Every structure is written in C-alpha cells, then in structure tokens.
Amino acid sequence: MYFLGIDAGGTKTHCMIADEKRRVIGEAVAGAAQHQIYGIEQTRQSLMEAISAALNGAGITIADITYGVFGMSGADGEEDFALLLPVVRKIMGEIPFQVVHDAWIGFYSATDEAAGVASICGTGAGHVGVNRQGQRLALRNLDYRLGNYGGGTDLAEKTLHFAFRSEEGTWDKSLLEEMVPPVFGVESMEEVCAILQSGDWTKEQKFALPIAAFRTAEMGDKVAQEMIGDMGYQEGRYAAAVIRRLEMQKENIPVVLIGSLFRTKSAYLLEPYMRAVHAVCPGAYVLVPDAPPVTGAIQLAIRQAKGETDAICPAIRQAKGETEE
User: Fold this and answer.
1) Which of 50, 92, 142, 291 is deepest in the core (most CB within 10 A)?
2) Distance between CA atoms of 324 and 305, rounded to whole angstroms?
3) Do residues 233 and 195 share a domain?
4) What 3-state DSSP class applies to 307?
5) Does one domain contain both 174 and 100?
6) Both 178 and 240 in a single domain?
7) Do 14 and 145 share a domain, yes or no?
C-alpha cells in the first residue's frame, strides 16, 4: 500500500509518498498553494505539480495510492473547503482522501499524544487543539480583522513600521533602519519608501524581512527583541485560549510549534509564547518537530486507511460525505 501526504502553504507545496511502514518512496516540492493568498488556480497547479513529480519519482501512478491526506494552509471555514475539496477530488478521483488544516499534520509530525495543541507561525498563524475526550477546536485562523495575528506577513509589516519610525525619530532608535534597506538592494529608508509606494517589491523581499528582524534581535536590538517578543506572547495567548476552552489546564500536554518562525527556536519568540501558555497550563511542554509536517500527513493517511479513529481527523472533510462528525 502507498500513501500520499501533502503540506501546502504560503511558501511551498511538499508532497511525500510512503509505504505502510512509512518508508518514503517519492517526494517533491512545488510552489505555494495557499488559496486565500494566491487563488485557487495556483493552488491547484502547485498541488498537481508536486503530486506528479512525487509519483514519477516513486515510479507509480495515482491509482496506486491507498489514501491521501492534504494538510492545507487556509483550510479554515466552510467556504475554504467548498473551494479546496473539488480541486482535490479531481486530482484523487475515486481514491479516498481528507483535507485538513495544516496545523493538524504538524501536530502529528511531532507526537502520538491523544491531546495537545498545535500552533503555526510561518507565513501566517494558526492554532488548533484536541483533548482526551476527543473534543477538538480550531480557531478561525483567518486575518487580523477577524481576530488572527502572527506569522511572517505580520512580522514583515512591523519590521518596516519600526524601521521607518526609527529613521524618522518617532520611536526608539533601532538597527532595523540599517538592516531593512539591503533587503531591497538599496542604501536608505527613503529608497525603501519609494519601492513600497510603487508596489514593486517581491515575494522574496517580503520573506527576507522577518529574517532581518530576527538577526537584528540577535544583535541586541531592543526594538526588534520587543517586536518579536510581543508576537510570541500573542501567539501564546491564542494557544492558551485553546487549552482553556478544551479544559486542559491541569494536564501535561504537548504544545507543538510549527512554521518557519518557530523553527528559528529564538528565545525572543519562544519564551514569551510559553509564558502565556504556562499562565493557564503549567504542565504544558514544547515540541518543535525535527520531521517536516508532511510526515504527519502520511501518518494520518496510514491511520485512516487502517480504519483507526483519530482524535483530530474529524476536523476535516471526508472525500465522500464532506461533513464533520
């Protein structure tokens, strides 16, 4: 039996194909597949490219797949599944599959625990949790207006904000005003301003800004440290809310941290995060997975093919039926 796993997000689409013993036989990476950012057509194309390349590498066809799990950034509400399910169904045909929020595959890439929380801090942010009674919760994980905050996109905006304020003298002086111009290939914040006003900045530059922020924090810059620390604390507040709403405050549970910003393992981000979590759940402990999130998709696909009931899988939509339990 062969199983297909997908980790699709705002930077890339990672496809893995493995057998029932989790031995990887095919793997490929394609472009971003976040329909809320890039649209459903690019999402479809990236999925197809990654799956096709992984199948070719494995020397099999889609008909040889037993089960597939698609961990999708932006798989938040009914309107998202209404867009994603037909696309995935067309790719998979009659092969059973599930579409899940990508936080779930991240959770199971790190632990086999029945209860816990997963937080994503990558391009964007998201938070989910499950308790030992099988109750599950996913926050809306949408945008700032709808209560969500965090991730590289927001950090890029704040990096620019405080770099300009430093340069204009409306906030504390920060090395950010020196670190930001090289990201854009220029020498001054005035030139950065012109680029931003023209709208002529690239995806690569947007992704480079959070990296510049972390480097600036490591150089001892207080503004960058506080900016990153505030984001960490806010992300921890979201996770704490999930724990509280699932009534897990007195338990020892894993908090799985997923995404490029958490993978920095920066104390400026992680310590404020856990301070907020420990305020409601002293027994919570951090797991930052070494394995890529797509391995969690493979694990879930194998479990579902075996008919195992998994606490997180109903957060999802079945390929046939498409209703939550």
Assistant:
1) 50
2) 18
3) yes
4) coil
5) no
6) yes
7) no
- Could you read off the pLDDT of 153-204 as tens digits, one per residue? 999 999 999 999 999 999 999 999 999 999 999 999 999 999 999 988 898 9
Q: Are residues 102 and 124 in the same domain?
A: no
Q: Domain of 174?
A: 113-289
> Mean per-residue pLDDT for 133-138?
90
Q: Are residues 281 and 150 part of one domain? A: yes
CATH number (domain holding residue 248): 3.30.420.40
| Interatomic CA distance for residues 304 and 34, integer angstroms | 25
The rounded distance, in Å, linking the Cα atoms of 72 and 293 is 11
Do 206 and 156 touch, CB atoms closer than 8 A? yes
Kindly provide the residue ranges of all beta strands, DSSP E only, lying in the chain, ordered along the sequence: 2-8, 13-19, 24-30, 65-72, 97-101, 116-121, 125-130, 136-138, 254-258, 285-287, 317-318
Based on the fold, state whether residues 295 and 283 are members of the same structural domain: no
Instruction: Return d(Cα 58, Cα 170) in angstroms, integer.
Output: 57
| pTM of the model as a whole | 0.83
Radius of gyration of the chain (CA): 20
Q: What is the pLDDT of residues 241-278, one digit of tens each?
A: 999 999 999 999 999 999 999 999 999 999 999 999 99
Structural domains in the chain (count)? 2
Tokens of 143: 């945008």
Q: Which residue has the tokens 């059973």?
A: 96
Cα angle value 78/261/145 (rounded, 5°): 40
Q: Is 260 helix (H, G, I), strand (E, B) or coil?
A: helix
**Residue 324 located in a structural domain:** no
DSSP class of residue 293 equals: T
* CB 298, CB 22: distance < 8 Å: yes
